[in-house]
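Input for the complex:
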Amino acid sequence: MKIKYFAWIKDITNNEAEEINSEKINNLDQLKTFIIKKYPDLKKHFDKEVLRFAVNHEYIIENINLDTNDEIAIFPPVSGG
Amino acid sequence: MKIKYFAWIKDITNNEAEEINSEKINNLDQLKTFIIKKYPDLKKHFDKEVLRFAVNHEYIIENINLDTNDEIAIFPPVSGG
Amino acid sequence: MIKIQKEDFNSEEEINKIKILYPNLGAITSFTGYVRNKNNNKKVESIHLEVYEAMAYKQFEKIINKANLKWDLIDCLIIHRYGKLNVNSKIVLVSCFSAHRKDSFESCNFIMDYLKKDAPFWKNEFYSKKNKWLANSN
Amino acid sequence: MIKIQKEDFNSEEEINKIKILYPNLGAITSFTGYVRNKNNNKKVESIHLEVYEAMAYKQFEKIINKANLKWDLIDCLIIHRYGKLNVNSKIVLVSCFSAHRKDSFESCNFIMDYLKKDAPFWKNEFYSKKNKWLANSN
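Predicted:
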């Protein structure tokens, strides 16, 4: 699945997009666990619950199942307008 | 004093402005009485209280005193915007 | 800035002239009113807008002053046309300039409310064979 | 009509292109947001607006659909810029087109509320010596 990072999240991941596929990742919670392990500096932000998650361009709050074709985005609170 | 008429009031007075000066006209109520006498077709509109009055470009509801230099306007409800 | 005129206008140009004076400005809310091709189920061909010009300037100033007491406004622009206006023509533009969105939105709506009630303009609506003076319902 | 672009735009031209399609249209309310020269008491030199473009289109469509359920709208226009924007630059235009004023006013405000909450844009504000990512407070 394709993971995209925006705004200051990118400064932590040093990466604006990457492909992550693992048999251990079948849902959003498992993906979050994987990403925190890969980028420990993100943990405090996940814990503070300020980050937002989108799957295929829709905001997702609950722990939905993920498919290898999905595009998942992780980003801080928005500031458009 | 100068009297101005607007919109369909003009169609009744056949006049968009006129000078009216009389010793009998010292306040707005006396002016109204004078005008109704001059233009009897206006009476029903005065009676229905749909008309608005302005003295020197300010809306006036109460019976204020008038001066020979005043500009008094009589008009129907507005419809700008 | 208050303008009462027969001529059409370019909103972008009129607004930019004011905007460029204020680099601390973050929000502009604008309302534009147009002549519609129908009203009360009748086909409209044009309107004639009559104005009591000196009073209109005075009333617009009073309305803007009232808005300034209630909101943090940087500037206000009212352009109101009069004379013969065809369908699709602009009738009025009200733009409210402020640092933040809420002030510009609320004041623009407020000014339109008062303009509809107090601005001495009268619409004479022309249909194919007759015409009718209107009164604002709101 | 939804546009997400780097380029500046002329609001009058963009709005006229839509207006001219609808002779029954009587009311347009527009909100324009600009880059301010200061924010939180700091002197701003420019902002960099990052966008998640595909998601932004989808979210704008959803917001417009929600507005259409609540108000009688003839059309809606959203133009949102991204990239480097200097002080005084337009950031966003939201225009709501309707027969009557109330629908255009309320829907324009509603769309701006949702845009501020849900549209995936991020402002990176540049001062003379540093920069800071912002979050919308309202």
